[in-house]
Amino acid sequence: MNKKIALIGGTGPEGKGLAKRLAITGNQIFIGSRKQERGKEIAEELTNELNEYPQICIKGGDNREMAELSEIIIIVVPYSAHKNTLMQIENELEGKIVIDAVVPMEFQKGPRSIEVEAGSATEEAAQILENSTVIGAFHNLSAEILMDLKKDVIGDVLITGNNKEAKQEVSSLAEEIGSIRAVDAGPLRNSKHVENLTVLLIGINGRYKAHSSIIITDIN
Ligand SMILES: NC(=O)c1ccc[n+]([C@@H]2O[C@H](COP(=O)([O-])OP(=O)(O)OC[C@H]3O[C@@H](n4cnc5c(N)ncnc54)[C@H](OP(=O)(O)O)[C@@H]3O)[C@@H](O)[C@H]2O)c1
Asked: How far is the CA of 217 from the centre of ligand 1 (A)?
């Protein structure tokens, strides 16, 4: 694809990992931060890191500016910042596909889910962003694996959403990454199950010293 993709909170590990993977397949990447300088700094860092790939295009700036320049926006801020961040950039997201990858969780003697009134972070985003098409994806992909280009990315990306065309577009984007397969995980109301799987995976990662992912069997 050659899409313009913003990562809101793209200066963290999950955003950087997705940025690298989606940049090397030919997309234009926009790294968003609360601070314009920080966004630019990380964009420069990733561009230098990927210097062996020709035609890499990664720019950085503040979240609002980066959202405005993009056609697909991926939300990768901590859950504690989810609502406020979306409200701040609501206008820039209008009419666009917004992919929510946020897991409502916290660490309290291990990983725990946070109850979300809307049902899930993805549904909360859909409530706030009435004029965008919100899709849930990428929740179960480890940032460590995404960031390490020497490693393949193996697993299924479970896609939730209520708009068939947007889900298809996000599925195609996800399948550009390593050996990823996109799986239709149903409507937005299923997002809480996908988000909560990450809490399980993080616990498993701790016990097995691994970076686990999900694979659904017997579907084609
Ligand atoms: N890490 C993983 O392996 C992984 C896997 C799947 C899903 N996720 C989800 O992806 C999201 C990002 O994960 P991460 O590990 O990259 O998170 P992170 O490093 O904690 O945060 C990402 C970025 O969010 C911004 N941010 C932090 N606090 C903020 C606040 N109060 N208000 C606005 N922006 C704030 C920061 O960017 P600036 O300071 O530059 O603004 C930060 O670099 C999380 O919701 C997580 O659940 C993570």
From this structure: 30
